[in-house]
Amino acid sequence: MASKQMVHMNRGQGETSYARNSILQNAEQNRMRPLIEDAIADLVCSRSMVVADLGCSSGPNALALASIAVDAFRRRRLALRRPPPPAELCVLLNDLPDNDFATVVKSLVEFKRNNGDEPVLLTGVVPGSFYGRLFAAESLHLVCSSNSLHWLSEQAPQDLKMKGIPPYDVDANVRRERRAVVVGAYARQFRKDFIAFLKMRAVELVPGGRMVLSLAGRRSVDVASELTHAWESTAMILSDMVTMGVIDKEKLETFYIPIYGPSEEEIRQIIQEEGSFLIREMQVPELTSVAYSALITPARVASMLRAAFEPIIVQHFGSTESGEEGIMDEFVRTAERRWSLEGSLQDELAQNPRGILHVSLEKKLS
Ligand SMILES: C[S@@+](CC[C@H](N)C(=O)[O-])C[C@H]1O[C@@H](n2cnc3c(N)ncnc32)[C@H](O)[C@@H]1O
After folding, report:
1. Which of 70, 147, 177, 198 could join 274 in a cystine, given CB atoms 3.0 to 4.6 angstroms apart?
2. Shortest CA distance to 360 belongs to which of 28, 36, 132, 141?
3. Which residues touch 254 (CB under 8 Å, ≥6 apart)?
């Protein structure tokens, strides 16, 4: 791959945008509410607070965690009968530079307008990678992040790229033989990245500061299922497209989706080894709860994958004869065909140990 991969979700408000295709991610954000409320309850001791959401993307989800935090802050202060002057809450939203910040800024203006006088809201955007430094030392009280930390810092795990090992082969036997090497390389890259993330935030949070994170993961250490990792569904659809002659096999062999979903045990070990944070809570809610599975339809999941992966797929595979849209329209059709049998998508999800990790951390005092 010649140029650097452009990681961002589909921009704008159109039919294929992330803004219109992130209802499943929003369901996850809502499940973080109790953890954010607990963190805020512990933190509301001073008049002002700084909250950052890392990997905010754009559309309604960009402000979902900030809204939960503002709401919790306001209610907590009311419950504590804090006297005037009004409190101040600073909300900072981060994502990579290619994110649709123009839309985010407009949403922030509206967010401020709808907020009222208490607390006084101060807002800002902070473009850059959350694997590097983003904020001044000891300037943050609460860091939130939803559905983002499974994205790796590199376009491909370094070990695989250096040795030229394809992440996904159309041939199931070859894939099985390589699986341990591929998954191991992804795991090592995630470990390196997540340690860097923790170290940066340890500098930026005040002592006792909190982090509430959700990321794609898996419910067991077992990686036997071919669909254990979030990127494998997308690779599988692309592999079907190779079989149909829509895209080249060689192209698929050099396409790395920079995503890794750790197990609860894996992430716990990394946090303990890095040493800056106490684990206040860790949960892996079922993906197949009744409310959640009602949201999972083939069309919705296919459109969600499109909204998240279109930029890197189009950048790598280029356009088909029917143009840039062509390859992605075919991607959605292929996915829907795969899951066309009623219940087949739900079965696929039930049979693999994927999940979402929810983690609440506290920065140690020294
Ligand atoms: C699936 S979206 C999640 C958006 C939103 N938080 C939500 O829950 O719907 C993942 C976001 O993480 C961002 N991202 C990925 N790697 C990043 C990095 N290294 N630094 C900052 N943002 C990153 C992507 O650009 C994308 O907007």
Report:
1. 198
2. 36
3. 1, 166, 316
C-alpha span between 64 and 148 (Å, rounded): 14
Helices (H), the chain: 23-31, 33-43, 64-79, 101-113, 158-163, 172-204, 230-243, 249-253, 264-274, 290-295, 298-317, 324-338, 344-351
The tens digit of pLDDT for each residue in 141-178 reads: 999 999 999 999 977 787 788 888 887 777 888 878 88
Which of 57, 94, 107, 190 is the best mutation target for the ligand 1 pocket, counting ligand atoms within 8 Å of the beta carbon and taking the most?
57
Fold category of 23-363 in CATH: Rossmann fold (3.40.50)
Local structure of residue 216 (DSSP, 8 states): E
Is the CB–ligand 1 distance for residue 7 below 6 Å?
yes
pLDDT band at 2 (very low <50, low <70, confident <90, very high): very low
Residue of 145, 116, 139, 131 lying closest to 55 (CA atoms): 145
> CA of 114: how far to CAs of 36, 58, 109, 119, in Å?
21, 18, 9, 12
Q: Is 9 touching ligand 1 by the criterion CB < 6 Å?
A: yes
Q: Domain ranges in the chain?
A: 23-363
